[in-house]
Amino acid sequence: MGDAVMGYAKMRDDKMLIIHPEKCNNCGDCETACIKTRASLTSLGLSCIRILKDIEDEEFFFPIACKQCENPPCMTTCPKEAIYRDDDLNWVLIDRQKCVGCGYCVTACPFGAMKLDKQKAKSYKCDLCKGDPECVKVCEPLAIEYLDVEMLKYPNMIHVAGKFARLTKP
Q1: Domains detected in the chain
Q2: pTM above 0.70, yes or no
């Protein structure tokens, strides 16, 4: 199927976060687990994963995390080249020493997965917990999985994309 599926980067270990929003129950355990693994983050508002809620459909929640894009807009907009693709893992990462907190990457991310810690003037995003995502471990309804990228199912993506579009309408 090639090195990319529908614009998502294929990891060299062939794994990525796969989101099943129809299974999410809005428990928030993924956000809490994310905060606990990052000593620098102190509130759920700073979690690298967040859950969008559909105001029209009270039973639909959408966990959002970095998609590790094949051609990440966040990386191309960074004026300090602080966002890079790791050569060994093929993950999109941030060199926080280079980051000046301008927020261009936050604006450029089409998924809303990039965040800006205004107190520290640094951008941040999911780094997949270095290959062992904590959010996956605590997600009892299996709404978040760390699976082979080939596990993405096109029909499910179409259904979820429609729901996501409703969530992001102004």
Answers
A1: 4-164 (3.30.70.20)
A2: yes
